[in-house]
Amino acid sequence: MKDYHSHIDPAKLDAFVGQAVQDISAAYAGVMVSLGDKLGLYTAMAGAGPLSSREVASRSGCAERYVREWLGSQVAGGYVVYHDISDTYELPPEQAFVLADPDSPVFMPTAWNIPASMWADEPKALEAFRTGKGIAWGDHDDRLVCGVAAFYRNAYRPSLVPLWLPSLDGVVAKLEAGAKIADVGCGHGHSTLLMAEAFPRSRFWGFDNHQPSLDEARDHADGAGVRNASFHVARADDYPGEGYDLICFFDALHDMGDPVAAATRAARRLAPGGSVMLVEPFANDRVGQNVSPVARMYYSASATVCCAHAISDGGHMVLGAQAGEARLREVFRKAGFTQFRRAFETPFNLVLEARI
Ligand SMILES: C[S@@+](CC[C@H](N)C(=O)[O-])C[C@H]1O[C@@H](n2cnc3c(N)ncnc32)[C@H](O)[C@@H]1O
Hints:
This protein has helices spanning about 10-40, 40-45, 55-60, 65-75, 95-100, 115-120, 120-130, 145-155, 160-165, 170-175, 190-200, 210-225, 260-270, 295-310, 325-335, and strands at about 80-85, 90, 180-185, 205-210, 230-235, 245-250, 270-280, 340-345, 350-355. By secondary structure, it is an alpha/beta fold. The strands form 2 sheets. It has a 7-stranded mixed β-sheet with strand order 5-4-3-6-7-9-8, sandwiched between helices. The chain has a two-stranded antiparallel ribbon with strand order 1-2. The model has no long low-confidence stretch (mean pLDDT about 95). The structure holds S-adenosylmethionine (SAM). Pfam families: Methyltransf_31, WHD_Rv2258c. Keywords: Methyltransferase, Transferase. It comes from Rubellimicrobium roseum.
């Protein structure tokens, strides 16, 4: 190793050590957030005003000494406000919206399942990096699938029906009148069910090659009493049916081992005038433009989950979760689509529309 010590700038070193410590601190805090969620500590505090540690403990049915230490961690991180004079703790309304309301579009605690699963699967990632072999979606720690489904369900709920579908050309009118829709790589089916509930005259088919996810999707459909959606095991390049007015990919195309084959299947299965809605993680086209906390999360999950699955799924084209619009456009051009545009974007997602 070359001697780089003489090149170290002390101010830059201080700043970077500070950043690294902040990151480690956040990782510790994630465990506390997960405990706070699962033990009902946040819900015990939401809207309750200032509470003593004893009150938080008795409202959540937990042991006070543990709760007091947990509260200290929350205060240290700015999640909970501490009132010195009364020795009480308060969860501000903004924090409650993010931490205590599972239906909030910015509910975060379940997202910690994703890094938890990545840590649990570190031995598999080490092996994959060293050998170049893949890791299938279903071979990860169970928390991965649940964490991803919960994270995206909350993102889709306020956006998919009110904002994303209307941003597509003429799609809402078709869905209202009664259309055929395929949701390819549907996972737990949250996207399928949101659309099926909003458009009862339309018929929805969810396809995925991971059976346990489809079992979950069917349970969700039964629980919600949705009758116009069904879920089937199928590969993205080999699902049944034709004449679909809309074919959707939600956070799934970049996971597939052959995205061009999946897009080609869509091209051949669309009804005349039909379209593809492609929802992908937000990304710019170049690595140097993807420098943000969101990009960091996506690249990290991509390294051990998305790329790993695509490699296990044949690895013909491993897009990764930060593919960006230009590379996605190229996939659809190769599949025979002539129109491709960005219809909507959020800090987390790109919504793209493709037509033949
Ligand atoms: C990140 S998950 C997204 C699930 C869901 N669409 C969502 O938004 O929550 C990617 C999904 O794509 C599925 N998938 C990956 N490769 C596939 C393939 N070749 N054919 C069908 N499904 C595939 C996985 O099983 C997984 O359920």
